[in-house]
Amino acid sequence: xxxxxxxxxxxxxxxxxxxxxxxxxxxxxxxxxxxxxxxxxxxxxxxxxxxxxxxxxxxxxxxxxxxxxxxxxxxxxxxxxxxxxxxxxxxxxxxxxxxxxxxxxxxxxxxxxxxxxxxxx
Length: 121
Fold this sequence. Notes:
mainly alpha; three-stranded antiparallel beta sheet
């Protein structure tokens, strides 16, 4: 963003005019999936406030909500939770010190105390 440009406020779903950020927030989609959604047939037509081909796209809130109410909007698919990692196996060998002598005496002393506790346990 240009240093003289002030950042945009966060999208509010009560706004009468929506941007692609509003649509992403409403559908809980990422940027790429949102752009695919707004390009899908049947999605309300967007308008631009400027004549440039690269001008920002806007939608009327009511039209997007009517699109959702009609049941033609694809709902986001829930992402299955990631599998829980396997528990770490306890090792019998003491872990080597994390810090080598000569780096910093305080860190080396802490590492020595930790390794002594690991051997005692």
